[in-house]
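Hey all, sorry for the wall of text incoming. These are the two entities for the joint prediction.
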Amino acid sequence: MSADAGVIDLLGMLAYGELLAFDRMAADARLAPDLGRQARLAEMAAWEMANYRRLANRLTALGADPEEAMLPFVTALRTYHDNTEPGDWLEALTKAYVGEGISDDFFREVAQVLPEGVLAAPDRALVLDVLHDDGYADFAAGEIRAAIAADPKVANRLSMWARRLTGEALSQAQLVAQERSPLTALVLAGMSGGESVDVLFRRLTTAHTARMTAVGLNN
Amino acid sequence: MSADAGVIDLLGMLAYGELLAFDRMAADARLAPDLGRQARLAEMAAWEMANYRRLANRLTALGADPEEAMLPFVTALRTYHDNTEPGDWLEALTKAYVGEGISDDFFREVAQVLPEGVLAAPDRALVLDVLHDDGYADFAAGEIRAAIAADPKVANRLSMWARRLTGEALSQAQLVAQERSPLTALVLAGMSGGESVDVLFRRLTTAHTARMTAVGLNN
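and here's what came out:
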C-alpha cells in the first residue's frame, strides 16, 4: 500500500463524515424546541461544510477526486445513521455528543501518532483542525444536563440510547476496517511504536466513559 | 407605526427566510443524484446561515430579539414550504430557482426604494448583501436546462410545478401582508414616490417570466 492511498482514505472518510454530519445536524435542527436552538444547531451544521470544503480542497491538491475518495465510506456511515435515527431533540443531541466525541478522539489519536513520513505535517494539521471544536459538545452537554435535572428518568433512557449508538458504531467501524485496507494499514502504521490497537481502543473507551459521566449518563 | 417596527419585521422575515432556506436546501441536498452535487447544495445551504448570523446580529444591535422578530413569519413561510414539498431533485432546484428569484427581487425593490429616513443605510446595505448571489441561480438553471435538453417533456412538468409554486407563494404573501401591518406599511412607504403596488407587482412578474424563459420553462 502507498502511504498516499491511506491518507486519501483518511481525508475522504473525514470529508464524507463532515457532509453527513451537516446532513444530520440540519435534520436534527428541525427537532429543536424553539427557533433559537434551531438556528444554533443550523449554524453548527453550516460549520461542518466549511471543514468539508477544506478537506475537499486538500484531496484535490493531492490529485484525488473528493467524490471518489468519499464513496468507499458512504454505505457504512449511512447505515450507521439510518440505524440510529433520533426520535427527539435529546436523542439527536446525545447521538451527536457521543458519536462525534468517539470519532473525533479516534481521528485525533491517529493523526497524532502517525509518523511524518506517513502523514505529512499539513495533513496532520488539517485533520486536527477540522475535528469538532468544543462548542457543539458544550451545547449538547448543557442541554442533556438540563433535561436530566428537570426529569431524572431521562438519564436512563438516554444511557440506553447511547449504548445502542456505540454498538452500532463499532459494528460499522469493523466493516470499514475490513473493507478499506489502505486506511486500516495507515492506522496500524501509527501503532508501530509499540502501541497496540487494544491500547488505543482502551483509551477511546476511557474517554467515552468520562464524556458520559460528565453529562450524567451511565456507560 | 414606528419605522423601526417595520425594519425589524423586514430583518426578522429575512432572517427566518435564511433559516428556512438552509433547512430546505439541506433537505433537498439528499435528493441530489451524486455526492458532488449533494456537497454543492449543502455548501450553498451553509452559506444561508452566514447571512442568518449577520441579520440576527443586526436585530440584536437594534435591541430586538432575533427569535421574536422571526416568529410572526413562521406560519406563513412553513405553510408555503409544507405545501410545496419537492418530489425530486429537479423540482427542488426549480422551487429554489423560482421562489428565491421572486423573493430576492421583492426585497431588493423594497430596500432600494425606501427613503433613508425609513431604512437606514447600513440596513439597506445588509438587506441587499444577504440576498442570494447568482451562484445558486446559475447552478439551478444549468441543471434545469440540462434536464430539459435530455428530455424535453421535463419542461412541461416543471412549468406546471412552477405555476403551483407562484400561486402558493402569492397566497402566503397576502396573508403576511394582512397580518403584519408594520411590514406592509414599510413597503407602502417605499411606494410613496408615485409608484403603486401594481407597478411593483408588474415588475416582479416581468422578471419572473424572464427567469422562466431563461431555463426553457413557460409561465
